[in-house]
């Protein structure tokens, strides 16, 4: 739900209601039926079911950890390249003399980038053979009306262009003309929180930090939250979240948010995820954004 804070906060506090309260479906109780002596006992079935569930749970945890580790590596690599850019463009490895570098170091720390990674990137930028990184954006179409925005940061534009186009074309996507996809998105500030957040408390914290507009939604993973805000208010929104006691794992960035999300069929969704996975495996690709609502 998008909230214009100055007009909504008072109404929410008076009503005591939350726009994000979702009723939980009740779970029907199950009663085991008596077992025939000629069939396996209920206990045997339960143990087999439990073992199977534990195996599936372990597989899910492993897959989730793999995705989390890959995402963390992408974030670390992104800030490493941005820091190299800032040092070379600003002409100094000293954050006190290079404002852009100082802001990037602060953002990197806020996104849990290790200090050793930051220092290595600064040192790397001062070496003669350090690459010249540049940013670029690719737009594409997937299946079922889906659109994609591919954010690239590379020291070899020819390589990154060839790799991105190949990943899209080989997986039945289509490269779009520049501007034909981006106009369907808004650029937003994004704060990711690895926990559920109380809406009213967040509203009050946002007001205290001079944030005029925000939108709280469920995160990509269960039990997480995302707050969208005006790009200029991203840092203030980040401080508002921290003031509520959320510091560990909180991340901030800029993100393209679709103006008209599309719900794809399960088959089309899977096809599009194949494209996205192929793109995210590329070293030069920092992130892939899309308009799928499912």
Average pLDDT level: 83
- Low-confidence blocks of residues: 8-39, 56-61
Beta content = 15-25%
Instruction: Report how far apart the termini are.
Output: 17 Å
What is the general shape? Answer: globular
SS content category = alpha+beta
Radius of gyration: 23 Å
Number of helices: 8
- Residue share in helices? 40-55%
For the sheet with most strands, the description reads: 5 strands, antiparallel
Number of strands: 9
Strand order in the largest sheet: 1-6-7-5-8
Helix and strand sequence: EHHHHEEHEEHEEHEHE
Characterization of the model:
- Helix 2 (42-90) packs antiparallel against helix 3, helix 5 runs antiparallel to helix 8 (266-280) and helix 6 packs across helix 7.
- The protein is α+β, with helices and mostly antiparallel strands and 294 residues long.
- 45% of the residues lie in helices and 19% in strands.
- It is built from eight helices and nine strands.
- It has helices at 5-15, 42-90, 99-110, 115-125, 157-170, 199-208, 234-243, 266-280, and strands spanning 2-4, 134-141, 147-154, 174-175, 185-193, 213-218, 225-229, 251-258, 285-290.
- A five-stranded antiparallel beta sheet has the order 1-6-7-5-8.
- The model is unreliable at 8-39 and 56-61 (pLDDT under 50).
- Strand 2 (134-141) and strand 3 form a beta hairpin.
């Amino acid at each position: 739900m998008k909230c214009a804070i100055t007009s909504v906060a008072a109404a929410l506090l008076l009503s005591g209601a939350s726009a994000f309260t979702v009723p939980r479906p009740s779970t029907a109780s199950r009663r085991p039926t008596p077992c025939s002596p000629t069939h396996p006992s209920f206990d045997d079935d339960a143990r087999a079911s439990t073992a199977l569930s534990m195996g599936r749970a372990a597989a899910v945890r492993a897959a989730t950890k793999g995705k989390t580790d890959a995402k963390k590596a992408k974030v670390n690599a992104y800030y490493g390249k941005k820091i190299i850019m800032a040092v070379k463009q600003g002409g100094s490895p000293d954050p006190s003399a290079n404002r852009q570098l100082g802001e990037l170091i602060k953002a990197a720390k806020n996104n849990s980038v290790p200090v050793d990674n930051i220092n290595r990137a600064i040192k790397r930028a001062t070496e003669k053979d350090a690459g010249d990184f540049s940013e670029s954006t690719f737009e594409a179409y997937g299946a079922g009306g889906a659109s994609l925005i591919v954010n690239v940061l590379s020291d070899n534009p020819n390589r990154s262009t060839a790799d991105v186009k190949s990943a899209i074309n080989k997986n039945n996507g289509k490269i779009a003309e520049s501007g034909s996809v981006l106009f369907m998105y808004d650029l937003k500030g994004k704060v990711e929180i690895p926990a559920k957040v109380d809406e009213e408390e967040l509203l009050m914290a946002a007001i205290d930090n001079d944030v005029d507009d925000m939108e709280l939604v469920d995160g990509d993973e269960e039990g997480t939250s995302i707050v969208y805000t005006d790009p200029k208010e991203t840092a203030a929104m980040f401080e508002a979240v921290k003031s509520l006691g959320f510091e560990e794992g909180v991340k901030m960035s800029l993100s393209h948010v679709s103006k008209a999300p599309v719900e794809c069929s399960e088959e089309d969704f899977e096809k599009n995820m194949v494209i996205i996975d192929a793109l995210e495996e590329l070293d030069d690709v920092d992130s892939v954004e899309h308009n799928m609502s499912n």
